[in-house]
Amino acid sequence: MLTGEYGLRHLSLKLLRHLSLKVTGRALIGAVAVWAVAMPLEAAAVSPLMLIAGAALADMMIPIYNVTQASYRLSLIPDTLQGRVNSAYRLPSYASGLLGTAAGGILLGLIGPRPILWIIALGLGMSALTASLTSLRRA
């Protein structure tokens, strides 16, 4: 797995540099936008098939987003600082995931799953819209 991650990262960075493709920001924004579209499919699901389709679409966006943002971040950071920057990035990122899971569980008990999924969709949509208005779209 480590070899595959290194190989894909190396290949993607090489392609981005040689072909001068500026697609990283659009890939990140697009992944969040598709993720935001997938959440209403889950929230409005009237059948297991619709729920599975929304979940599958959302789950496909997670690795696209994670690999793209990590590769982009690592391409900008000098090798000597990557450990420090990654630890500074991951600590609040992982901690907020734990806090979000706890808050989500409490809210699920209070208001139910459908409103939670609509709130998540709204948050993801606002994130994609906000990011599309920044210089990230040209990255």
How many individual domains?
1
Give the number of DSSP strands.
0
Distance between the termini: 27 Å
Q: Major sheet: size, sense and barrel closure?
A: none
Radius of gyration: 17 Å
Multimeric state of these chains?
A: single chain
Description:
The chain has one domain. Helix content is 84%, strand content 0%. The protein contains 5 helices and no strands. α2 packs antiparallel against α3 and α2 packs antiparallel against α5. 12% of the residues are buried.
Put the structure in a nutshell.
The chain is 84% helix and 0% strand. It is mainly α and 139 residues long.
Give the SSE map:
Elements: H1 2-19, H2 24-43, H3 48-76, H4 82-111, H5 113-132
Helix pairs in contact: 2-3, 2-5, 4-5
Q: Which terms would index this structure?
A:
5 helices; 139 residues; 0% strand; 84% helix; globular; mainly alpha
